[in-house]
Amino acid sequence: MPAVQMTSHLYRFFPQLENRTITVPAGSVAEVLQAINALAPGFTDYILDENGALRRHVNLAINDIWVVDRRTLSDRVAEDATVYIFQALSGG
Amino acid sequence: MSKMILLGTRKGTVIVDGGKGDWRPRPIAHAGIPVCYATRDPRDGTLWSALDHGHWGPKLSRSRDGGDTWEDVTSLKYPKGARYITKYLPTPDFDPNAPAAKPEYSDAVVYKIWNIAFGHAGQPGRLYAGTIPGGLFVSDDGGDTWELNRPLWNHDSRGGDLFTGDATSENRWYGTPASVDYGVFEPGIHSIVVDPRDPAHIHVAVSSAGVIETRDGGRTWAGRNLGMVNDYAPNPRAEWGHDPHFIASCPGQPNHLWQQNHCGVFYSADGAQNWRKVSVPEAGVHFGFPIAVDGKDGRTAWVVPAQADSQRMAIAGGLYVARTSDGGQSWQSFRQGLPQQNAYDIVFRHALDVAGDCVCFGSSTGNVYLSQDRGETWQCLGNNFPQVYSVRFG
B240: closest CA among B212, B265, B263? Predict the structure, then answer.
């Protein structure tokens, strides 16, 4: 199952995600984020806007590749992949 | 007498406890997170902060225990299908005489929750919030769920109902510079004034469009900008395109409304049906952002004058507050207790408030001043706060 790593800033809002290994079923980025949201309700409100797109100042990578589809999150996440979620430097 | 002052700052919410002449700030809440507005619901004591997360999207935060604990409220969102006509910052080669381009549309996303207001005592749970890009949201359950006011969003002055199709009228709402930080140039609602006599009677103010009024609880809206003068527009007396920085009314005489903008101080004694310019530039009363109105006397208001427009700081390095008690015919300036040398503060639109005889303001350079004699003399509550976005008595 894919692993998820994220900026520690998000633990401030979702302490239940800290100090644990996060694995979720493989699928699209949208499905991965929904799986995290099931572990930590409200998580996607911080990562996505109301249209379901990645927020302007949020970065997401699959292994070392930036996600391409920031709008509908259709990029595929393989079984052995790691998803990285962190803040973009553009957000100050 | 108010027991609390809430500061919304660049680095969090600061609650200053007071009561017996001794005002003490608590340790900052929402540490590190910009808070563009913080206020207290007088009906049930709930504290509200509008968080302006750089990365994670705007959120409301509320405290139901006087500020000991806070919870994020993430439910304020545009409904599916909410669109607006995209505005762009004018470029140097902008030609105002060129034929109008075909409108472009954007799906609405909340960039900033700019203002929070409360319903009447007989409307428990009724809240209002104003946003960039120009949405008025309403909650009837204490903020758990929110609904966009569609008649205002779909107003003819914005192009009509874009949920169902393309624009049917010209968009007269222009962008606010406050939106540029979010990578857009869109309007914003920063003032919401609920008439204490009638909960269905509300004024909102939009940068940059003007003042808009409903008398039927938000089902219909009409512009209220007669008498406004927009010095830098091709038609200074056009109905739309004004940039009120903030509007406030007198709770005891709600027909008395005031606003401050780039082009002066404006006053209405007839519920915004007619505005009158009451600036006195030779007294420095012309440009600024906030305005506060006395609780009982609608002719009495306070401003913190600033040097217009390209400088946006205290005039000649000296900070002062001006007060009128005759509807703007004359203004008195008060400087005692305020710095008169090397002061470069500007006071933002929500960062001045009045409660009884107390007046308080906070500045762009982290100074907070309090007067307990209606603005005539001042004491400093601190010089090292983060940049202050809002000041509200609680």
Answer: B212
Per-residue pLDDT band for B272 (boundaries 50, 70, 90) equals: very high
Element (H, E) at B261: strand B257-261
> What is the least distance, in Å, from the CA of A15 to any CA of chain B?
13
Indicate which of B51, B56, B112 best probes the interface with A, i.e. most A CBs within 10 Å of its own CB. B56
Measure CB to CB from residue A91 to each of B54, B72, B77 and give the nearest one. B54
Check if the interface score ipTM surpasses 0.85.
Answer: yes
Digit-coded pLDDT (tens) for B11-37: 999 999 997 778 999 999 999 999 999
pLDDT at B54: 85
Residue B1 pLDDT > 70: no
| Nearest in space to B173 (alpha carbons), one of B240, B228, B82, B237 | B240
Q: Pick from B53, B74, B110: which is nearest to A42 by CB?
A: B74
- All residues of chain B having their beta carbon less than 8 Å from the beta carbon of residue A91 are 54-55
Nearest to B130 by CA among B144, B146, B142: B146
Place of tokens 């639109």: B349
Give the span between the Cα atoms of B340 and B316, in whole angstroms.
Answer: 9
Q: What is the CATH number of domain A3-91?
A: 3.10.20.30
Tokens representing A5 are: 């790593």
Q: B10, B53, B55: which to substitute to probe chain A, counting the most A Cβ within 10 Å?
A: B55
Q: Is the CB of B54 less than 8 angstroms away from the CB of A87?
A: yes
Sketch out chain B's domains with CATH numbers.
73-382 (2.130.10.10)
Query: How far is it, in rounded angstroms, from Cα B259 to Cα B207?
Result: 12
pLDDT digits (tens, 9 = 90+) for B351-366: 999 999 999 999 999 9
| Least reliable range by pLDDT among B224-233, B243-252, B347-356 | B224-233
Residues facing residue B52 across a β-bridge? B58
Contact between A9 and B108 using a beta-carbon 8 Å cutoff: no
Flag if B57 and A42 touch (Cβ within 8 Å). Answer: no
Q: Which residue has the tokens 């030779």?
A: B282
**pLDDT for B150-199, tens place per residue?**
999 999 999 999 999 999 999 999 999 888 888 889 999 999 999 999 99
Domain chopping of chain A, boundaries: 3-91
Distance to chain A for B80, nearest Cα, Å: 7
Please tell me the pTM assigned to this model: 0.95
Say yes or no for a CB contact (<8 Å) between B78 and A50.
Answer: yes
* Residue B393 pLDDT > 80: yes
